[in-house]
TrEMBL record:
Keyword set includes Transcription: yes
SUPFAM superfamilies xref list: Sigma2 domain of RNA polymerase sigma factors (SSF88946), Sigma3 and sigma4 domains of RNA polymerase sigma factors (SSF88659)
Originating species: Chitinophaga jiangningensis
UniProt-listed Gene3D superfamilies: 1.10.1740.10, Winged helix-like DNA-binding domain superfamily/Winged helix DNA-binding domain
Domain annotation RNA polymerase sigma factor 70 region 4 type: ranges: 121-172
Protein known as: RNA polymerase sigma-70 factor, ECF subfamily
Amino acid sequence: MLQLSNEEIVKGIRIRNKDVFEAVFKQFAPSMYNIAVRYVKDEDTANDMVQDVFLNLWKNAENLDERAPIQHYLARATVNTCLNSIKKEQRKEAYTKEQMHTATPAETTHQLLEHKELEAQYRYALEKLPDQCRRVFEMSRFKGLSPTEISEQLDISINTVYAHLTTALKKLRVVLINKQ
């Protein structure tokens, strides 16, 4: 194994000297692996983390600081890589749990039943409206017609259209509130 100073190691890595890089890997990979295992608790994942750390060292060689010991840089990089991986896994698990919780069949069935019950109450309330009032309301809400268009089609004044809409909304509100 090459005996190099920290300054020589950093300079060698910066110029992408493969011999220096290989020597650094052989010297420090085992201790970085031990650090990774303590964090991720899995040997294969720890190996992956160490590989990522050294790959990033090679990719970002020009950013190395000659004054910082390479061992400290590698240790910090290993810890950060492990922590980022753990955080990513935790977010993934939380998201999966949230998705499972929001989409349970029992809740979906319950919501569907509530929706059907509310719709039935709404239909019942509509049937209780006077004919002309219901017709005006349905033309407005279901067909999307404006009060002017309703007025022209039914040959009634626009004020009568507004009066029917107001009456319909009040009666629907009262019936639906009393049903709950």
